[in-house]
Amino acid sequence: MHFLRKLEVVTDIAAFIGILIVVPLILSMVYEVLSRYLLAAPTFWAYELGYMMMGAIFMFGMAYALKVRQHVTVDVLHGALPPRLKAAVNIVGYCFFIPCVAWLTYALWGYMVRAYVGAEGSGQSAWNPQIWPYRAILVIGFAIFLLQTLIEFTKNWIALIANDATDI
Amino acid sequence: MTGLALWMFPALLVFVALGIPIAFSLMSVALIFGVLRFGDAAVAQFVSKVDDVSTNYILGAIPLFVFMGALLERSGIASRLFDAIYLWTKRLPGGLAIGAVIMCTVFAAATGITGATETVVGMLAIPAMMKYAYDKRLISGTICAGGSLGTIIPPSITVVVLAPVADIPVGDLFAGIMFPGLIMSGLFLAYIVGACTLNPSLAPRQPETAEDAISFGEKLRITAIAMLPPVFLIFAVLGTILLGWATPTEAAATGAFGSILLCFIYRQFNLSMLKEALYRTLSITAMILLIVLGGSMFAGVFYASGGMVAIQKLLAEYGLAGWPAIGLILFLTFLAGFVLELISIVLIVIPIAIPLVKLYGIDPLWFSVLFLVILQTSYLTPPMAPAIFYLRAIAPSSITLMHMYKGVIPFIVMQIITLGLVFAFPDIATWLPRQIYGQ
Amino acid sequence: AVQPAAAQATKPVEWSMATPWAGGHWLDIGAKRFAELVGQMTEGRVKINVFPAGTLGSALKVTETVQSGIAEVGHNWPAYDWGIDRTGVIFGGWSGGLTPEEYMLWLYNYGGADLWKQWRQEVSGVVVVPCGLLETEIFMHAHKPVRTLEDYKGMKVRTSGAWAEIATDLGASTVVMAGSEVFPALERKVVDGIEWGGPGINMSAGFHKIAKYIITPGIHQPSGAHECMFNKDAWAKLSDKDKGLIELAGKLTTYETFIGYAKEDLAGYAFLKSQPGVEFVELDESFIEAARKASFAWADKQSGANAWFKKAYEHQRAFQASIKDWSKFRLPIGAAQ
Ligand code: NA
Ligand code: NA
């Protein structure tokens, strides 16, 4: 389990970046309100940075939410299962979910590369920033999420094989 | 092809019932059926959904409101606020639950996003209600039902999307849901008072102690310190919207900023508390948005693999006319609300419904209000109830899913009564728009 | 005799059409009508199911949805692809562009449509058929009257796309917000003015109930056009005959939208005029001149960075120069009373 914990440091780092973004998200929107209302000078960047920061919080938080068991389940049945059976059910679930996340990560990579090659702008405002750096955040977020799903899969595997359910 | 789409629902139920996280279940089922329908191209649709959700400015209100709730909770400001509410309402049956519903009503007027009202008020009120040993079913029902008011009390994203599709001015529809929303809120309050009167164990009253003997002046002092600043904060959020300073999303940021200031004012600010609030914000935001993403992937595959056409055929083939047809549409809406996200239901059902509604000479505004009430009810109705999933994310683990399932039932009854009232007395929906905007 | 493959009858197909429209006449007499005409003209060989905004792919990224094959068909406003390639602005309609009548002439008799197809084929890899003509929009619903450039300077306006950039050059403060926030923001005076659509659509949206002044003419969008796009693999499955019929359906929808929107807008305008408390304000000729000049300056700048933009823009400008005599021998619209 030791090496799994080490791998989870990646998730922790992502989460730390995620929480750091919340404060600038607040400040930029408040700044936009003040600047627009008091100075009649709306910013050209607050809108796009707003959704980008929201999205980044989402992306950097997915793996962490999995690690701390925040993703909601209906556990009426699941909660009553013996640990090994529970692990088996989880493994079945991850067999569908991990390919989904892996495929998305790969496709988002392509989505980013396309934006980079075509020098695509966001098209959402007159600012129209290059969109590939933001898409890189989507790729990174999903890649880290993928890593955490693999870690969870391994934990369940260990629980099933070694009958050690301390980590699920 | 059409038959395929309908199998998505049982498949989803199996995944969810097995205890796979809701968001993972939605995404996995979308993957399976998406590949069956599109092959390799399926992932392109999923990428577009990731892009949609992660670039949606409106969703920025979620981390902002969650942060506001988390900070007020962790700093102890929330518990002081509810202690003060308790001080005044301890003779009132279910006083804290009443405070929570009122707070939900006010918050609903500040945000239009499903989930935001519920998470923020839930974080503030649940610890207080737990502390005073409120019944866990009552706590769950109160927060889920109160939170669902976010969709029906303006502003509401669902309404903004619905109005142009139904060819109704947004302002008229906002005015139209105002009374039904307030009536619903009033019925929730009435239920709480009634139930807690009949069964005081739902909201036990503390035995009288010396502490209760404090003077009226002292009471006022405590209230002024503990209650007024947070209340002022909540009204500041509302005020920035009403005064035209800020859009609802920006108002959420104002509220988050204000709650940081409040922590300084109360001298509660420290880094470890801020860190805890931030981590909580991160995980709850990610959890809510992943459900939003999963829901929109699921819906995308459902529609693309013939689900929309199947529903349209169903309506056409039965050849129903008049109220039976409208009734069937509303019933399908209720079913769809179990899993599909509110906005996509609007986009699918309303274009089919409105021509029929007009054909039968029914007022589209009135129909839209009925539709919204049903949508909101299905949002609350087990087993697939988004309101309950959001509650799970913020409630302590001692409140179980069964508490929640049982707790929402009386509130669903109150929603059905609201529906009946609007149905029987269309003026509830149509009077206010007439007054404000004329014919 | 053996027929060449392309001339054989198409095997019946049932396709999905992605659109950016949640409702309103762009969905009804634009996208849905085109689908209906294609079904009728091909005698059911090409059936198109129309999907509202955001159900298949992203609302404003119809081109991507069609490229990937999630939808075989798309109904789109080319200027939505503005972030990827600004050439779409020239075809979609913009403040330096054409009126509805000029548009039809440019598209079908002066090579505009062919240029458009070529651009899409080369840059986006999809097949397009122009399939809808846009109305002249209302310039603004506003809380203050605007006649001159002075009035406009410093105003907080909600707008989008290319006009957001040009309006900034003219001295307005453009506020960016989500579509769902526009109505409440105008109502609460977060912004001083907004642009949306023509009189017909704006009447249904009810902007006149929350802002006193309606400013015309819509110089930011004198007209424009919609495109129906096809995934190229899907398109390749069609017989030449059906391809030709789809072209015809596109032309017919262009014509029907032209007369359809005009009728709705006339009714909308008459209704808005009749509303107490609503005041119509006309822009000064000097404002209109300044807006055109700023638009051409903006387009010249874009031309430097994008070869396709330059080609389409110059083509449209040359057309504009070639029809300057049109008004000399033609009666103005609605002159006989
Ligand atoms: Na609301
Ligand atoms: Na439900």
TrEMBL record, chain A:
Its main location: membrane. It is a multi-pass membrane protein. The keyword Transmembrane applies. Residues 25-155 form the Tripartite ATP-independent periplasmic transporters DctQ component domain. Keywords: Cell inner membrane, Cell membrane, Membrane, Transmembrane, Transmembrane helix, Transport. The chain crosses the membrane at residues 12-31, 43-66, 87-112, 132-151. Pfam families: DctQ. One of its GO terms (molecular function) is transmembrane transporter activity. It is found in: Cell inner membrane. GO terms for cellular component: plasma membrane. The complex comprises the extracytoplasmic solute receptor protein and the two transmembrane proteins. Belongs to the TRAP transporter small permease family. Part of the tripartite ATP-independent periplasmic (TRAP) transport system. This is TRAP transporter small permease protein.
TrEMBL record, chain B:
Coiled coil: none annotated. One of its GO terms (molecular function) is transmembrane transporter activity. Residues 11-427 form the TRAP C4-dicarboxylate transport system permease DctM subunit domain. InterPro entries: DctM (IPR010656), TRAP_DctM (IPR004681). Keywords: Cell inner membrane, Cell membrane, Membrane, Transmembrane, Transmembrane helix, Transport. The chain crosses the membrane at residues 6-36, 57-77, 97-126, 138-165, 177-199, 220-245, 251-269, 281-305, 325-353, 365-391, 411-432. It is found in: Cell inner membrane. One of its GO terms (cellular component) is plasma membrane. It is a multi-pass membrane protein. The complex comprises the extracytoplasmic solute receptor protein and the two transmembrane proteins. Part of the tripartite ATP-independent periplasmic (TRAP) transport system. Belongs to the TRAP transporter large permease family. This is TRAP transporter large permease protein. It comes from Oceanibaculum pacificum.
